[in-house]
Design a protein that fits this description.
Two copies of one chain form a homodimer.
Chain A (H helix, E strand, L loop, with lengths): L1 E8 L3 H12 L1 H5 L3 E10 L3 E4 L6 H5 L13 E2 L4 H7 L4 E4 L11 H10 L3 E4 L2 H17 L4 E2 L2 H4 L5 H7 L5 E7 L2 H11 L4 H10 L8 H4 L2 H14 L10 E2 L7 H9 L2 E11 L5 E11 L12 E7 L3 E7 L4 H21 L4
Parallel strand pairs in A: 1-2, 1-5, 5-6, 6-7, 9-11
Antiparallel strand pairs in A: 2-3, 3-4, 8-10, 8-12, 10-11, 12-13
Helix pairs in contact in A: 1-14, 4-5, 5-6, 6-12, 9-10
């Protein structure tokens, strides 16, 4: 069986969940036709670790926060991302750092270094894809490498690959989505009578919302995802700044109650549509949906994308949009796509 | 570009919609990498027509009901299904006859004849797949032919191929679906205050329900689809008779109103689940769903399947479950799968 050597860039929740799957469930990968061996890990807190013959994942997964890799063979307290990405014996670089949504760094640099070195890249980071997707895809092509990022939109729930592989022969006219679990949860709790601030506090207690919920509530998280969907699936070249964005911060309990009384639900909708002139327009804004809308029934922290197609009308997929293991699964599906690329020489 | 020769078995709504796409939108197939040429058509009413160089679809699509193929070159007023399937120069047999859900005939025989002759088969008929799926798949393998039937579950909405291609590396624990548009429409109208009989009459007016709605309302249509899902996706070997089936005929307006008052919705749920002992159990029955259930928001005649997976939890796809053009698209996606089979030698 083929063994792929991985470099894990960032050793937070998602890459730790992936490492846990690799350690505990090799049969899952064997069923896909390959073995995974982690040969390098870098992390802002832990530093860097390179062991060509394979890192013992039990050891590094057991290390407490505050520890670092310095005492280990091949270890250092410095992250040394550039050196590890360029020079470690990894076939696939797994990028899952904490990355700025404004400039996509440090993930953009990580992806560039890896692809330029002819290494395949899988990532869950929205930033590099939303901001530099076209450049990075070109760089991948130039270097005969695969660049996969299913998790950048809806965590492990298939969206990009689903549209690319399941709608052969259909024309995609647009996409609409509920792409932020926190804001959807908050709107649902407002339907149950909570005020916006109370609902946000509850979402934070449940671990859905960040300490600073601005990106969730204000729509800028969804904006990045809409740019990805527009560019990847509709062939647009939109910068996230070109996506008109309004969050749910101005929605009042009264509005939510009023809508509900009329059989409607407020939802934060991200959408991208191909106009009759072929131009793609994209937006993020709160909207009231009637019960027959395919996104009206999406409750709690669930995410969904509804694809508007010419022959089938709306086809909608819903599922988790976050979660460590769920997002790690996106990386698994990306690695399977890299494997298909390597074996077939073409993207599948 | 490759040209595939098709034999259309049955020339009702679905195959007429396919013929219309082939006539009017060759670019749609060119984008998939092939051309389609219809070299044979058989139909109970029209008889049979074989023209090796390709039938002029405009001519046959314009023929009124009551006419038959007798006057045309290569035409006959007799259906001659067996002869056409076995001997016409078709690469792919497109089976879309009016078929009995009890014994799957005449479709089962059509599929057998075609596969035994080494011809690829695409079909929208539930019967052959639900009743004889295992045998027919074995026959296909034996004859190095492809047998595709995406449309047998949810018309053009991808379900079988979605689960097979999008969930690599996941374990599927079970499936739950709303698999009959008529009964879902009826339950929705009962929520709006109609009685069962009134709602059925309305569904018939809208063309959702057959003149005899027994199979829709009584659950036997869903039962066939559940058997297909259980056998194809969970590896079961269930006969439809082994699926415990209760329809919605006993659901009262009072029950529907009562549930709604409690924030719940009655839905006709078809499901198949792998137990801890590995055994697959399957059923069709009305159930009350709370608003957070992934199928609770499926409204009107829309269908949906929710896949219960080990790493992602529930991932749900919804879309049309009927319609002529929608079902013809299932055949298009099946023909694309046959093309991939021919080019790759393997099922994709």
């Amino acid at each position: 069986m083929t063994t792929y050597n991985l470099a894990l860039i960032g050793f937070g929740g998602v890459n730790r969940a992936l490492a846990t799957l690799i350690r505990d469930e090799p049969h899952r990968f064997a069923a896909l036709g390959f073995e995974l061996r982690v040969v390098a890990i870098t992390d802002l807190a832990f530093g860097s670790l390179v062991q060509e013959e394979g890192i013992d994942l039990a050891t590094v997964l057991a290390m407490p926060r505050g520890a670092n890799f310095e005492g280990l063979r091949g270890g250092s307290s410095e992250p040394r991302n550039e050196e590890v990405i360029k020079n470690s014996p990894a076939d696939i670089v797994v990028e899952a750092t904490f990355t700025s949504p404004v400039d996509g760094e440090p993930a953009v640099s990580h992806v560039r270094w890896a692809l330029a070195a002819g290494k395949h890249v899988v990532t869950t980071n929205k930033g590099p894809v939303a901001l530099h997707g076209r450049e990075l895809n070109a760089l991948a092509k130039e270097n005969s490498a695969s660049f996969e990022y299913e998790g950048s939109v809806m965590s492990g729930t298939p969206v990009l690959r689903l549209a690319q592989k399941m709608f052969e022969g259909l024309q995609l006219k647009g996409v609409q989505g509920i792409l932020n679990g926190t804001s959807n949860y908050v709107l649902g709790r407002m339907e149950a009578g909570l005020r916006l601030g109370e609902a946000i506090a509850e979402a934070q207690e449940h671990g859905y919302a960040e300490a600073d919920p601005t990106a969730d509530i204000g729509g800028s998280d969804v904006r990045l995802k809409v740019a990805i969907l527009a560019n990847e699936l509709l062939g647009a070249s939109l910068h996230p700044d070109e996506v008109d964005t309004i969050g749910i911060q101005e929605i009042t309990s009264d509005q939510v109650a009023q809508a509900l009384a009329n059989g409607q639900r407020w939802k934060l909708i991200g959408e991208a549509t191909r106009g009759t002139d072929g131009k793609i327009t994209a937006s993020v804004r709160p909207a009231t949906l009637t019960a027959d809308h395919p996104l009206a029934g999406i409750s709690g922290a669930t995410n969904a994308v509804s694809f508007e197609t010419d022959l089938l009308g709306a086809v909608t997929v819903s599922g988790p949009g976050a979660g460590r293991t769920e997002t790690a699964y996106a990386l698994v599906s990306d690695i399977a796509a890299v494997d298909a690329f390597i074996n077939g020489g073409v993207h599948v």
